[in-house]
Design brief:
about 250 residues, alpha+beta, five-stranded antiparallel beta sheet, 7 helices, about 30% strand, globular
């Protein structure tokens, strides 16, 4: 469960979305990608609150926690740190996510990808899922600085995870197979996105945000060709463009 994402927009649009946003010079102002894979662990621009100043800066997807002591630990365990289950952020006192619950961030996206298992189809069917009223929106996450310093600069790499929750009635039908089926990223209203970045939230306030469920009616979706690879589509169209799968049963939602 990693939820590959798309950002087919422009950093300037994020600045319009968050007036007064400071952009770190390391962020490519023209950054865009039809397909960002979680387990590629590449830098992606996320938004943090630094003393009241919202800042867009490049962090790597996939948290590297303090209990990873060796590069081998990172190699074996990082794939499990790309998502954080919302239920473990407050309620699980032994969870690493609870320890960093005050390190909150937002990940600007234009959509997410997920697979649907359909009887009679050899491969799972990939979907691109967006919000109806917002072409750009943000997924809530948590961030943490890697305990391993960069060998060249001596700096600690910023890393992040995306928060997931139990799926709504749309995503239950799409993410319907596998060990983590029935889950989805935590989609928020614009107001809750801004609240998520407020400093000093108490556990009750954090929990209220984590309990929010985006109504299925507020989401839109369509099938795409593939998200298993970063290679271009054989028809040379963009990864985010619709692809029709013949004889595919419709989802039972509006």
């Amino acid at each position: 469960m990693c939820y590959d994402i798309s950002f087919t927009s422009n950093i300037r649009h994020v600045q319009d979305y968050f007036p007064g946003l400071h952009v770190d010079p390391q962020v490519n102002i023209d950054f865009t990608s039809d397909h960002v894979q979680a387990q590629a662990y590449q830098p992606f621009p996320i938004i943090t609150n630094n003393g009241g100043q919202l800042t867009l800066q490049p962090f790597e997807w996939g948290v590297i926690p303090d209990y990873f002591k060796t590069p081998e630990d990172v190699k074996k365990g990082r794939s499990f740190m790309c998502n954080a289950q919302s239920e473990k952020i407050i309620d699980d006192t032994r969870s690493f996510w609870r320890r960093i619950r005050q390190h909150r961030c937002l990940i600007p996206v234009t959509g997410i990808y997920e697979h649907r298992n359909v009887t009679g189809f050899k491969n799972k069917i990939p979907y691109h899922v967006q919000l109806r009223q917002r072409s750009l929106f943000c997924l809530p996450g948590l961030f943490h600085y890697s305990p391993f310093a960069n060998k060249e600069t001596g700096e600690l790499t910023g890393t992040f995870t995306i928060i997931t929750r139990a799926a709504n009635r749309l995503m239950r039908q799409i993410h319907n197979n596998g060990p983590n089926s029935g889950r989805m990223p935590l989609f928020l209203t614009k107001e809750l996105e801004l609240q998520w970045l407020q400093e000093g939230l108490n556990d009750m306030q954090i929990q209220e945000i984590l309990h929010y469920e985006m109504p299925a009616e507020e989401m839109q979706y369509y099938t795409v060709h593939t998200i298993r690879t970063t290679k271009p589509r054989p028809d040379d169209k963009r990864k985010t463009e619709p692809f029709e799968w013949l004889n595919l049963p419709e989802l039972e939602v509006v």
